[in-house]
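Note to self: keep these together.
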Amino acid sequence: MSFLRDADRSPAQTLPLIDLAGLLQGDPQARVAVAQNIGRACRDTGFFYIHNHGIDASLQRAVFDQTKQLFDLPDEAKRALDKATSPANRGYEALRGQRLEPGAPADLKEGFYLGRELAQDDPRVLAGRFNHGANQWPMLPAFRPAMERYQAAMTALAERLMAALALSLALPEDYFAGFCNEAMATLRLLHYPPPATAAPGEKGCGAHTDFGGLTLLLQDDNPGLQVWDHSAEIWVDAPPLPGTYVVNLGDMIARWTNDRYRSTLHRVVNLSGHERYSVPFFYGGNPDHLVSCIPTCLEPGEAPRYPSVTVEAHYREMYRRTYA
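Structure:
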């Protein structure tokens, strides 16, 4: 594990950069070494960069190209795909459609939600399960193939990271297999206009923690992501680094580990002067999986801080809070 340094910043104000090459190999000791680095980052910051992750750069470029084409569509075409019309929360979200920071102005971003494609006659869809259903696809011929390939690749990467989290907690590598089985995952395409369009107090994305399991963020070349440094009590930039993802833990992992692992505040302030695009992949897990405090995260005599909850119940509550 190495660290990103800046002449004006102390080591406490940096995010770790973790090489995943050992995680993708068959050598168990190499996987444990990577997992230990991930564990330190999870305890210290809840945020880290990864490289040598195995996601093809050409696929990433295709995703960004299609993302830009989507948001360049006329407003009428985008609003025809409004997520409000989707029982599965899929589709377009207009500027200021979400407020992630309580008491702050709505977020100055537009987005597009995608998930696992399920037919209308799928039993989970017929039962009205949360976030289960069909996507809304724009009239862009290369859009769906690129996004479906990317979702599959990111799901596989997230599963590897969950195995590493298990090792980092002194658990069997397959401890989270049930969580990963038929997992919910959301691919979210985001566009942040330049700050000239912002009203006083508006941010691209207000300060918040993520809802679920893992977030893997693909950034374009424009900075904007800022992470709260607990020890220094300042916002720290997490600039784009070629060939990397920014990974962070969501509230579910913090809950699962009795807050041993951090779900850290972060926000987006687009001061680049340019249109900014980013693509977070939210790995949420099996909706029926019960999240109860992991035994290795309890000291003798310590009680769990949170009651047990299913993944689906947790997500329903988080959506209720930010879209109320």
